[in-house]
Specification:
Length: 110
């Protein structure tokens, strides 16, 4: 029996921010092949380290990669890139997700 996709979409835009002491390569290996575009952002923590290095890892998968320092700006950029049938996945460090969530809430206000 063939499995049906849970979500139907044209493109997936991945917005990702991770701390330097996490397994960045593993996460990129799992997520980058699924994405059509990748936006890298910096978690709001001193442990973010060289956050742009995550972008260099993602570039190895041949997808367009953009590095945007703040999660709010990264989410707003991603939302502008979405087409009607596209999907945005925002994931990574909890330090990044709180700011990203706030940006999503503001963007969805009427």
């Amino acid at each position: 029996m063939k499995a049906l996709p849970l979500y139907v979409r044209d493109r997936l835009i991945l917005c990702l921010g991770m701390l330097a002491d996490k397994e960045r390569e593993k996460v990129i290996t799992m997520l980058a092949p699924l994405a059509d575009e990748i936006i890298i952002t910096r978690p709001n923590s001193p442990r973010a380290g060289d956050w742009k290095a995550l972008g260099s890892l993602a570039e190895q998968y041949g997808r367009p990669v953009v590095c945007i320092e703040t999660p709010e700006e990264a989410v707003n950029y991603a939302l502008k890139r979405l087409g009607e049938n596209d999907m945005l996945c925002v994931t990574g460090s909890i330090y990044m997700l709180a700011d990203a969530r706030q940006a999503l809430i503001q963007a969805l206000k009427p």
